C-alpha cells in the first residue's frame, strides 16, 4: 500500500484501503460485500478532489468500510489492470473512462457491474454524492443477483469479442498498410493548429514519430515525402509554443481545445518520455535548434522525475524514462543524460516486473542502454526477460501476447494489439524480439514476433493508424 506517492497519499485516511490482489478478492467473496475499486494516479485533479472531500467525509467512509471491500489502484503501478478495468467500464457504459475511475465489482466473481468517474462528497447539480451512490449500489448488489450474473456473462462475452485475432497462420500485412496509414494521417491533419483530432486533443507522439521515420526512409530518394516531414515538424512547433508545454518543464497530458490553449493540469512521466524521444529525434534529423531546446528542457524534467528521492510510481514509466534519456543522450550528444539513465536502470534491477508492459518496457530500457559487446551482464538480463515474454505471456496457439500471466488476479486475460498512446504490449514485445534477433539471431524470438504480426494482420489492415506500434514491428521484420 505504500509503494507509490499516490498510494501513500491515502494512507492513514478514514477509508480502509486494500491492495488489489487475491486477498481483497477472497475477502469480498467470503463476506459477500462487493469490491469498490478507486483507480487513479498521482497528480489527477479529480482523484485529489475525492481524497479531500468524499473520502474525508466520515459518513461516506463509514459506508465504504461497512458495505464494501475498498481497493486502491495506482494506474502507473498496474497498467495492465488499468487497461482491463477501463475497457470493462467502456463496455458497460459506452463511455470513455479516465482518472479517477470508480468501479464496483461483484463479490462472487470480481466482475465490474457499475462505475463512474469523479463523485463529490456532497451532491451537486446533476451529480450525486458518493454516499448516495454507495447506498443504491449496495442495495442493487444485494437484491439483483440474477441480473448481475446475466450482466457478468454478457461482459465476459464482450471481452472475448474484443480479444479476437486471426490464427497466426495468416499472411503478414503488405506494404499497402503503410500507404493507408500515411493517407489517414494527412486526411485527419489539423492544418491550422497541427496535430490530429478535436477536443480533447493529445499530442500523439506515435503519429509524429511514424511520420518522421517515414520521411527519413525516403529522404535520399528522388521523391522524399516532404508533406510527412511538414506534418510532423509543424505539430512539434505548435505544441512547443502552446499551453500544453508547462513553463516548469515537461508537457501536460492533453488540452481541452483544438488550439492547444487549455491544458489539463496533470503530467505523466511516460508521455513526457515519449515526447522527449520525438523532439530529440526531430532535432537530430532536421538540425532545428528549437527542437533541441525543447528536447533539452524536457530531458531535464524527465531526469528530475526519474531521480526523485521518494521514487517514481510504476516500473513502466521509469523504464520508458530510462530509454528516452538514453535516446536523447545520443541524439543531443549529452553524456550527462546517459549517466542519469544508467543510474535509473541500476535502480530497476531491484524491482520485479509483473505484467507484459513491465517486462517489455524494462527490456526496451536495457536494449537502449547496453549493447551485447558493451555490457554483457545487461544483455544476459535482456535475454532472460525476452525468454520470460515467451514463456509467461505469449499465446502460442493464436499469436500475440497476453497482458497478464495465467495466475494474475484478473477476471479476464486479454491480448492487446491496438496502440493506446503508447505501443500495445504485443507491439512492443514484437519490436524487441526482432531487435534481439538482429543482434544475436534466435529463431524463437523472430518466430514469436511474426506470429504476433500474423495474428494482428486483419486488424492492421482495417485500422492501420490504430496500430502504429505493430507497423514499426512490421518494418523491423523486413530488415
Overall description:
This protein is mainly alpha-helical and 479 residues long. The chain has three domains: 5-162, Glutaredoxin; 193-351, Glycosyltransferase, CATH 1.50.10; 355-479, no CATH class. Helices cover 55% and strands 5% of the residues. A four-stranded mixed sheet has the order 2-1-3-4, with helices on both faces. A hairpin with a 6-residue loop joins strand 3 and strand 4 (112-116). The longest helix is centred in the first third of the chain and has 18 residues, at 145-162. The protein is globular. The two termini are 45 Å apart.
The computed structural class is mainly alpha
- Specify the biggest β-sheet: 4 strands, mixed
Query: SSE order, as H and E?
Result: HHEHHEHEEHHHHHHHHHHHHHHH
> According to CATH, what is the topology of the largest domain?
Glycosyltransferase
CATH class of the largest domain: Mainly Alpha
Number of helices: 20
Assign a percent range to the helix content.
55-70%
Mean pLDDT: 94
As a whole number of angstroms, the C-alpha radius of gyration is 23 Å
Low-confidence segments, given as residue ranges, are none
Q: Under the CATH scheme, which architecture of the largest domain would be assigned?
A: Alpha/alpha barrel
Number of domains: 3
Tally the beta strands: 4
Strand content: under 5%
For the terminal residues, how far apart are their CA atoms? Answer: 45 Å
Morphology: globular
Biggest sheet strand line-up:
2-1-3-4
